[in-house]
Amino acid sequence: MNPTESLFSPITLGNLELPNRIAMAPMTRGFSPNNVPSDLTVEYYRRRAAGGVGLIITEGTCVGHKAASGYPNIPMIAGDEALAGWKKVVDAVHAEGGKIAPQLWHVGGIRRPGIKPGGDLPGYSPSGMAVPGKITGHAMTKEDIDDVIGAFVQAAVDAKSIGFDAIEIHGAHGYLIDQFFWEGTNQRDDEYGGDLAQRSRFAIELISEIRTAVGPDFPIILRWSQWKQQDYTARLATTPEALEAFLTPLSDAGVDIFHCSARRFWEPEFEGSDINLAGWVKKLTGKPTITVGSVGLNADFLPEDGSADFRAAEPASLDNLIKRLDNNEFDLVAVGRALIANPEWANKIRDDQADSLTAYSKKFLGELV
Ligand SMILES: Cc1cc2nc3c(=O)[nH]c(=O)nc-3n(C[C@H](O)[C@H](O)[C@H](O)COP(=O)(O)O)c2cc1C
Predict the structure, then answer these.
(1) Pick the CATH number of 5-366 from 3.30.530.20, 2.170.120.30, 1.10.20.10, 3.20.20.70
(2) How far is the CA of 239 from the centre of ligand 1 (A)?
């Protein structure tokens, strides 16, 4: 028996039928001129679907709020042209037998004036901060909150109508939704600030409204992380009890699958147990989870000095991952950089050709497909 066989067992999560346990992690790429996914984007995702990925989660794609974007040439998921571009991506992935979810994104306070679209608008965030204590942008009003929620809802409805199989909400890594979760960037004194339960209100409203708009059967994935790009040591929940209290209302609001972003999947989340973040979330919420972080690689994706160097990494054993999957610790495994360097990563693992995998280095980030 191939020791990686369990990665290739099919799974049905709600009405998302997947041929295997491998998801492509969402990875930004600034290759969408005029914020429209191009034919190269179509080919990039088609190759990964043909290479055996069960569920593709796209790069972060910005919802149609005026200040959602924070980097050049990031695709939007709003407007006829961008939606037509995404529809081509969806159709190409489906033609290869794959499934695909867009990652819906608003960068919040990370935005700086000058990024298109949005012109001179500053970052919009809970308290005008992307980094604790530094006011660099606009503190969102209740009207802004309603506008952003409306933009996420519209993106979810549009994603469903052009054939995406699910959506992923980007609630991780210190972007807008996480800026609400995180005490460091949420100093509000209205109903959207306060303790973690109150700071979760924005996400809960956003998820509930999406759920109402897309109906009960359309899968909603929430990606969240303890760590922030602003502080790798930050944690929203430091005990299982706190984690359960944080996630239960999000789960009840309509999340079907939790995508638990960590930098190293093998790290235990709490003392006294070997279980990782995705393992705890599955155990505490009863919902399926996705693990991620250096799968198949020997180094994690952010250096400790914060230089965002997405450093190089060599292929590494999957034994620990498979052992955890066999123990039912999580349901899906997201693969990031290894899939940038190896579009056929999944098929190669399945066919016992791990020896032919290419090491990851950031030069691959410049490749168009
Ligand atoms: C180039 C690059 C771009 C990324 N962009 C995103 C993104 O748009 N959204 C997101 O949630 N995570 C993003 N991430 C994080 C990845 O989804 C993933 O969690 C991380 O790379 C760890 O997985 P890996 O070790 O398998 O690469 C990005 C990572 C890389 C390397």
Answers:
(1) 3.20.20.70
(2) 26
